[in-house]
Design brief:
With 310 residues, the protein is α+β, with helices and mostly antiparallel strands. It contains five helices and 19 strands. A hairpin with a 2-residue loop joins strand 13 and strand 14. Helix 1 crosses helix 2. It is globular.
Length: 310
């Protein structure tokens, strides 16, 4: 099943090229407004699944192309992002140590929304294509053997980054948690729809050009280990987002006017735009291309605009 939010945060089920509004079928769940309903649905899925299916089957759909999709989990309690969690097409000689960081939940935007590049002296702005897990039930000290039982579903995720901010050192908070730096969507695919999330093709296109292309089988620490490790540090709650990392070799500069598409096999395609009022520019090269050309540092330097080095 594909669950989504659309228009004024109505909760829906995707059926082919249509979406059926199921908000009224679950409105008895405690909530501040409709944006909270998805967490209640996830937490009480055993009770509400039949009700949701009936509402989706009985309801009248509207054309998906005529609605505005919203983030499928607009208010996650946590966004945990795995750091350096791919073997980079075999270019890493050793498996990196498992690591992660938090991203601000209010950085989330949805399909068709805009990532806004802030007025900060970043060396480059990038977005990492990632498969995201949506946690289905409270998870604390979960074993790898049981880990997959705690996944409610999957969606596409972009980990936006403003790299190279001063001062040098631990700058993950200001690099990762900017507003609009967490595109999520276009919908949530329930776990039963994807037999093997460890074998999914991921592709990011920037203005129609393929930049990142890799498979989730290249993860250094696979999904059961990720859940085991994260849940040993803090309790994961229903609706939490776990971003599983990216292959950094295809990372590329995000600039004003970019139209970005992230497609994950069996999940869907997330679209979003990029806006930069300062019109800063970089070469349109990936990290691996920059390295192959003998460039200094991990990514191409800023060429023009505010904060460019003279």
């Amino acid at each position: 099943m594909k669950l989504c939010y659309f228009n004024d945060f109505r909760l829906g089920v995707i059926k082919g090229d249509q979406v059926v509004d199921i908000t009224d079928a679950v409105k008895d769940l405690p909530h501040r407004d409709s944006r909270d309903l998805i967490v209640g649905v996830i937490e009480h899925w055993d009770k509400y699944k039949v009700r949701v299916e009936k509402a989706a089957n009985d309801g009248k759909g509207v054309a998906l192309k005529g609605v505005r999709l919203r983030p499928p989990v607009p208010r996650p309690g946590n966004i945990d992002c795995m750091a350096v969690n791919y073997m980079e097409d075999g270019t890493l000689k050793e498996k990196p140590a498992i690591n992660a960081f938090h991203k601000a939940a209010n950085a989330v935007i949805g399909d068709g929304d805009t990532m806004v590049l802030p007025d900060v002296p970043a060396g480059i702005f990038e977005g990492e294509a990632e498969l995201a897990l949506i946690i289905g039930k409270r998870a604390k000290n979960v074993s790898q053997a049981d880990a997959m039982k705690y996944i409610f579903g999957y969606t596409c995720f972009i980990d936006g980054s403003a790299r190279g901010l001063p001062p040098p050192g631990n700058v993950f908070f200001q690099m990762k948690s900017r507003e609009s730096f967490a595109p999520l969507g276009p919908w949530l695919v329930t776990a039963d729809e994807i037999a093997n999330p460890q074998k999914l093709n991921i592709e990011l296109k920037n203005n129609g050009v393929s930049m990142q292309k890799f498979n989730t089988d290249d993860m250094a620490h696979q999904i059961p280990r990720v859940i085991e490790w994260l849940s040993s540090i803090h309790t994961l709650e229903p609706g939490d987002v776990v971003a599983t990392g990216t292959n950094h070799r295809g990372l590329n500069s995000f600039m004003d006017g970019d139209k970005v598409e992230l497609t994950i096999e069996k999940v869907g395609t997330l679209h979003f735009n990029v806006k930069d009022e300062h019109k800063r520019t970089w070469a349109r090269t990936t990290r691996s291309q920059h390295k192959d050309k003998g460039g200094e540092g991990p990514h191409t330097p800023q060429l023009t605009g505010k904060h460019a080095k003279k």
